[in-house]
Amino acid sequence: MYEKQRKMIGLMKEILQEDYLHLQVHSYTLNEDLDKGSVDISCRLSDQQDDKFEVTGGGVGVIDALFDGLKKRMADDYPSLESIRFSEFSIEGLISSDDSPDVATQAEAVATVGILNSENKEFQFEAKAPSVSRAGIEATIQAAEYFVNSERTYVKLHEILEHYRSEGRTDLVEKYTDLMSKVVQNTSYSEVVEQIRKEMR
Predict the structure, then answer these.
(1) 132-166 and 170-183 helices cross at what angle (nearest 10)?
(2) C-beta of residue 139 within 8 angstroms of C-beta of residue 125
(3) Can you say whether the dihedral through the CA atoms of 163, 49, 123, 14 is positive or negative?
(4) Which Pfam families match (predicted)?
(5) Chain centroid to CA 172: how far?
(6) Cβ neighbours of residue 85 under 8 Å, at least 6 residues apart?
(7) 176, 161 in Cβ contact below 8 A?
């Protein structure tokens, strides 16, 4: 993951506190149609409040299918997800240096998932796991977390900014305007801004 992304995650956690979304994968099932070249996935997840939900999607591969499912499941609440798209997936196998006869069971896969934002800027997310599909799924979940938390942070900063603006705190207005300018580099929030305007009418 890029250093800039790590710093952004730190900012999002600082602003959101307990509202920072963390997703955990519990199980998944795959159905691959080799003739059609398509994959369907059903993935069981939970958030930081341990609320469990299921994501289903389809695509040309496991990661594409899961990315499709996550967007369909979450884009109504987080419209900025519609401005990002899956761009690449790579996998690297790691073999343990251990001389144990069970070395094959200790092998791991490292998956890297690329996401393009509304300005065609690429973000990369990486996960390590005992299987290729699990590593890819966990990297894709990281991507969803990142952009959902980014939108949550944008909305929270907007609320804070409006509060200090109404109080005439120009020093803090400047501070939170600067923070919003950093978050908005992640992707477009045009639909989010429109929703905020409607709620303020």
Answers:
(1) 160
(2) yes
(3) positive
(4) LeuA_dimer
(5) 29
(6) 115, 116
(7) yes
pTM as predicted: 0.88
Report domain extents, the chain.
Answer: 3-97+105-150, 155-193
Is 153:16 a contact under the CB 8 Å cutoff?
yes
> CA separation (Å) from 83 to 55, 86, 118?
19, 11, 5
d(CA 82, CA 60): 19
| Cβ 47 vs Cβ 178: under 8 Å | no
With beta carbons less than 8 A apart as the criterion, state whether 85 and 144 touch: no
**3-class DSSP state of 26:** strand
Q: Contact at 8 Å (CB) between 157 and 11? A: no
Q: Report d(CA 199, CA 201) in Å as an integer.
A: 6
pLDDT in tens, 45-90: 999 988 999 999 999 989 999 999 999 999 999 999 999 999 999 9
